[in-house]
Structures are given as C-alpha cells and as structure tokens.
Amino acid sequence: MAGSPVVEFYAGRQPDYLGRTLDQILGWDDEELENRHNFIQILFPTFERSGVTPRAPTLTTEDVEAFHQDDALRANLARAFDRMLSFYGLVRDPQSGEIGRGPNFGERSANWVSPHNHNYLRITRILKCLSALGLADRAAAFLHELETIYRELGEAIGPDTLRFWRAAVS
Length: 170
Fold this sequence. Notes:
The protein has 10 helices and 2 strands; from the N terminus they run H-H-H-H-H-H-E-E-H-H-H-H. By secondary structure, it is mainly α. Strands 1-2 form a two-stranded antiparallel sheet. Helix 8 (119-132) runs parallel beside helix 10 (159-169).
C-alpha cells in the first residue's frame, strides 16, 4: 500500500503533483526558487491548505508519525531545508547545529529582507513544517538566526512577521 503524497515524495517514490522530484526541485538555482511559487508547499507541507497552491498536499498525523520514525525522510527534509538556507544566504554548522550568515548573505538578503516580502510567508511555512516533522531543533536554530537578523534589519521585516515566526516554532 502506498503512503501519502508527502511521504511518497520525500521517500523518492513519486513526484509531486506537477511531476517534479525532490532532487529536481533542490537542483533549481536561486532565481528559479525565487520565481516559482508552487514548490514551497511541496517541500514544506503544513496542516493548513495553501490558498496559493490548493493542490499541494497537507500534512496528516500519519505523515508526522512517518517522519518521526524514518531517518531517511527526515534526512531528505534536512536537505530541502539546507537548500532554502542557501537561498536565503544562510548556512548551518553541522557540528553545532547553529545557523549563521553565509558569505553571500548581503547579496541574498537583498532579495528577501524587504517590507511585506513573500519569502516571509515561506519562512513561516518552513518553521512550521520542520517543527512538525521531527526537525524542531533546526526550526529553533533558524528562528534564533532570524531573531538576530531582525535585531539588525527589523524595520524591513516588521514585528508582525517576527511574531508569526515565533508562533510557528512554539
């Protein structure tokens, strides 16, 4: 019996509803990640249906259980997270688990640190997904770095966005 679309996609047994595999999406360059708006719901599913991409699958309690029990599913989710960190100009230290600014942060942040940027919604989704699917430590580390960025660039981010990010992890 086949699993859910989320589990099957992350296990590499089936593509998403548009025929794309995890590896294909993770291979996209930053420009493609920025310009496509129907992938983030696939890479980071949540329990809420997407208004932008209503065909994207939502999480179930069975999905959550599967990810908590399967190291390979969590490893693939971690790969997706690392790709998005790179997109944002951030890096994760594999030893400490801490997230910090990469050498291209200035260039990359110019793409997403601006008032009302759609990437803020993407980040909220990423935080919710990681928290639900067994990578809460990475969600917490990401939030910590986002709070650091907010202390410096908060005017461009806004307090409401920071509240959404914090709520996504708690």
